[in-house]
């Protein structure tokens, strides 16, 4: 059984890499640098986005840890998810929601860059005895996201016609790989997730996702609330996993991050579709 689980996990990891690279490349092929940066010139929106993701979202995670009396490893896993923002999955959610893609990409990059400096600074304060190597988080950011995004932007700037022809195929690849990520992640971690039955871990993850979506919705304003709701609710599991691997031996920490990730998949995809239908 362990062999099958390992195979599914390897497949999930490969699918994640394919999804992140193809998603960011597809966005680069369809937008310009100016379009991505334009929403970030709104100082108020940027400040509210940072407050939502790096003040209110972590506070909500810490509060739910205490309210539900989660075992310490589960609580730490939830808190790590709360501290890490800027998930690449936001691009696909924004696409499904027919939302402002330029703001979605700008927000994702902003949140990921801040996460690299924020988590190493804040985690030792809230969880004694921890330390984070920011280089390991930054490495995945640069290699898997910023390089493909930059490549797409440069290619579009130099050959817009060719970029327009290639982009639909790359976007289709990102959708297929996203489906593989969801299926393989759930299958690979099924036993881990069922191990928390009888605790409040799954309920806490559900309520946490709702709270974060609500925070983003309320702070986003009429033009940006859908993207900020999705961007705040979709936490950066990859960064959280890196931090967990550096600091914690108890597998329940990783299990809780996985529970949050799967709950977000299940809840935010239909939420994005509903946003699209409501337009």
UniProtKB/TrEMBL annotation:
Keywords: Membrane, Transmembrane, Transmembrane helix
Gene3D superfamilies: 1.20.1530.20
Membrane-traversing stretches: 12-33, 45-68, 74-91, 103-131, 137-157, 169-190, 196-220, 227-247, 253-272
GO CC, any one term: membrane
Annotated membrane topology: Multi-pass membrane protein
Compartment list: Membrane
Protein name (Swiss-Prot/TrEMBL): Transporter
Organism: Mycolicibacterium alvei
Taxonomic lineage from the root: Bacteria, Bacillati, Actinomycetota, Actinomycetes, Mycobacteriales
